[in-house]
Known about the structure:
This protein has helices at about 1-25, 30-45, 50-60, 65-110, 115-140, 145-160, 165-180, 205-220, 225-240, 245-255, 265-274. By secondary structure, it is an all-alpha fold.
Amino acid sequence: MKGKIDLLTHLKELAGVFSKLGIIGFGGPAAHIAMMENEVVSKKKWMSREHFLDLIGATNLIPGPNSTEMAMHCGYHRAGWPGLIVAGLGFIIPATLITVAIAWFYQRYGSIPDIKPILYGIRPAVLAIIINAVYKFGKKALKNWQLGIIGAAVMIGSLSGMSEVLVLLAGGLLGMFWFSVGQKKGSMKQSFLPLLLLTGKPELLKVAIAATALSTGQVVGNVSLVKLFLVFLKIGSVLFGSGYVLIAYLQDELIDQLGWLTQQQLVDAIAVGQ
């Protein structure tokens, strides 16, 4: 009985935290993950900052929206599979509802509301959140000069345009060979779940949702929901890299190959996702 009560308490906590993050989580994945770190590590102390960093590394090695995957990982850490579901739904439902509402408005009136003034005000706040998170992560991650060298090499590789996956793998291999001698194997009790069914990179997950909503509205009479699902499943299963890569995938699939959207509609979907 006590175990059930504890589980329900944890699920209520997860629902509250990640629903709030889903509502206020403007900006890209860096801002989302910084907000999660503040809630999950600094305030709630559900896990150590080191473990949170490990989860960030894992989510960058698999396709799909990193910030949504992080929400699910945190939920799983706190309350197992029920926690994974509650945290994931809490994080994505607010954005999904807003996107569906805007897509309905778009279908009815042929344009989207002008939200640029709002975005201009949000961006400085998002930048401040990211800088604060990077500072806190840096203090935990860069504990000695060897890790500093690896971090600098990874940063140079990332800034030079190397693939995110290759950069992360290279950093991991360097660390493994450098610190393997005399080190005990780390205990990773919380599994890194391969959440492959989710689509797109995190900062443009809502772009995919918007594009789906718009394309469904345009060709609902000609395309089955199964085909729509399979198209985005394929994209989500093979997509690595930045959100701009997602735009290229959507351009190729929805416009060039299938003809579900026009170029202007894809541009409007990107605006909605931002």
